[in-house]
Request: fold
Amino acid sequence: MVRRKALQTAVSLWGLIAGCWPAHGQNVIGQGVDLGELHRALAPRMARSETGLPLLITSEELSGRLSGQVLATLDIPFDRLRAAMEKPETWCEILILHLNTKHCVLLPGATPVLRMAIARKHDHSAGQSQHLDLTWRMLKSTPASISVGLAADTGPLGTSDYRVSFQAIPVDADRSFVAFGYSSQFTATARMAMLAYLATWGSNKVGFSRAADGQSLVTGLRGVVERTAMRYYLGINAWFDGTERPAAERRRYRFERWFYLTELYPRQLREVDRATYLTDKLSAESRQSGTSSQ
Reply:
């Protein structure tokens, strides 16, 4: 039975401009999008974001594909952002912050592959999880921009064709503009199971963007993908916040920081209490191998 977060394990960017998102190609980034123009056009809206952060969250459900993205200005110098995000090890350390990710290791080989253990519920162990192997690719890395893509043909619980993307450019000496998102294909059975959950235990869950009426927040599957996109985006923030700490303290601090950031949005993101989250993460971390200390 597909339960909570069954579709939340997908990750990828869908283009704001029609036609820029290649749904099935290996190049998962919408290369036709000029991020500089996009930032200039969206900066006023991002400044008015109801999240209190300079960001926009969008989502789409189309032909069995669920997609979501976060567009945001980060208070991180671009050279620092680029240096970290062009390392696949960094990605594992960000992805593990999500409460349903139990394990993430970098598999050996010519092409980096991130093996994630995804649990259906936060209290399931890594042994009760299912694997998602994301092939990691550096698409572009220059002093002016970075593009990273990850992809997996198959996923857990009736999902497939995962596409992960990350793009960034410098805004000024101290800030970067980031486009982060994900998508996955899901079967009719998986969709029905998720909708059943959302009609019962998840009936009070909402996303971050406004529904068609312009008043209420989106619900249903779009709410699911927006909550997941936000959790991963906050993971990027928490990871970089942790770089300011002594090396021996970074991992625990990043867990604590991620939980604190998610608690700023309890209506959307609250699932467990702090003690439960930290106990689960620290016990899983003690068993984790294959990630490097940043």
User: Anything to note?
Assistant: The chain has one domain: 35-194+212-287.
